[in-house]
Automatic annotation (TrEMBL):
Domain Enoyl reductase (ER), residue spans: 11-335
Protein keywords: NADP
Pfam assignment, any one: ADH_N
Gene Ontology biological process terms, A to Z: small molecule metabolic process
Transmembrane annotation, as ranges: none
Name this polypeptide is given: Alcohol dehydrogenase
């Protein structure tokens, strides 16, 4: 089978299509013929050599978390899925028995990890992590859900928002950002989204953002947000100087939920404003399999239509990563190994 592998961790030029032996399922596993696999900034961190998750001396590495396809074969003791089933994978890898797994939510697992391997014609996965796909949910749409929408959904749950509340999403045009705006809309939560690009913001407004602000300078963004109102929560996937910005504009008692650091791995904040304003900062990673099942339901009933910017054949996976690195996208980029 063919796989789009990272053969060098040097950015998009390090992606090559390679031949690999087709995987066989072990006990408790299934193999899935992959129809669609969306890419995430997480894969780009790895490809840029900026992730500790991959050993640069152990290449090629096949990334890709967001697997959607058809079950080809199942191993012993698998009853939940059968060959021919259309499925989406929850990329959570948990031990199932540590204190945090027992207490839940499962993404708190002490040895939490992520599945990689979807940028290939066939993927070998844990069968218990497969969620059946209703017939009317197409593969491309479903492939948007497992990382970006799951992360945004879990963050919104942790933000404890209510209908009519105001959410601030710095960087509202990528995977997590668009998901946050769309899911806020589903919940009846108003949102403010930002981007460096005015044209991308037009699309974000069509997708449900109530207010959009073009710009990247935190001081400019601060006054623009203040003229709209004080957000009840901030969904922060950028880190860097956007953390202090978000904390500063948030209302008293507001919640900042953080999942990323695209704009910088460290942030300075005003400690006095944090405690005087009774504000909260909450770290969040991915979500639960139950969250992902809920997202599949939302798509199936027509309440959520994930935004797919473009699809790419497996051969053009390097191009997909180039598009992401150049920030030339609104929403998700999806690789289609089955085409
Ligand atoms: N902890 C978790 O579980 C988890 C899960 C998913 C993602 N993440 C993290 O969350 C972040 C977003 O992931 P994603 O897949 O949604 O990425 P993405 O699609 O590449 O995000 C693009 C967005 O980020 C903005 N952006 C990119 N570089 C920027 C910079 N240097 N300064 C300011 N804004 C910038 C873009 O703004 P423009 O419109 O201006 O281009 C766009 O809105 C990543 O850091 C990722 O690792 C974490
Ligand atoms: Zn565990």
């Amino acid at each position: 089978m063919r796989a789009a592998a990272f053969t060098e961790l040097i950015g998009p030029d390090g992606v090559s299509v390679i031949e690999r032996e087709s995987p066989e399922p072990d006990r408790g596993e299934a193999t899935v013929d992959v129809d669609a696999c969306s890419i995430n900034h997480h894969d780009l961190w790895i490809l840029n050599g900026a992730s500790a998750m991959v050993d640069p001396t152990d290449l090629p590495f096949v990334s890709g978390l967001d697997v959607v396809g058809t079950v080809r074969e199942v191993g012993d003791d698998v009853t939940a899925v059968a060959p021919g089933d259309r499925v989406v994978l929850c990329p959570n890898e948990t031990c199932g028995h540590c204190r945090f797994c027992r207490e839940g939510p499962e993404n708190l697992c002490a040895s939490y990890s992520l599945y990689h391997g979807g940028l290939a014609e066939t993927a070998r996965v844990e069968a218990s992590r497969l969620i059946p796909l209703p017939d009317d949910v197409d593969a491309t749409t479903a492939a948007a859900l497992p990382t970006a929408y799951l992360t945004a959904y879990h963050m919104l749950r942790r933000a404890e928002l209510e209908p009519g509340d105001l959410l601030f999403v710095p960087g509202a045009t990528g995977g997590v950002g668009v998901a946050a705006v769309q899911l806020a809309d589903v919940l009846g939560v108003r949102s403010i989204g930002t981007s460096s690009s005015a044209s991308k913001l037009e699309t974000v407004a069509e997708l449900g953002a109530d207010h959009t602000i073009q710009g990247t300078d935190p001081d400019d963004l601060r006054s623009a947000v203040e003229s709209i109102g004080a957000p009840d929560a901030v969904l922060n996937h950028l880190g860097g100087e956007y953390t202090d910005l978000g904390m500063g504009v948030m209302r008293r008692g507001g919640r900042m939920i953080v999942c990323g650091r695209t704009a910088g791995p460290t942030s300075e904040i005003d400690i006095a404003d944090l405690f005087r304003g009774h504000k909260r900062i909450v770290g969040s990673t991915m979500g639960t399999q139950a969250d992902l099942e809920r997202l599949v339901d939302l798509v199936a009933v027509g309440d959520l239509s994930p935004r797919i910017d473009r699809t790419f054949p497996l051969d053009a996976t390097d191009e997909a990563f180039r598009t992401m690195a150049e920030r030339d996208t609104v929403g998700k980029l999806v690789v289609m190994p089955g085409e």
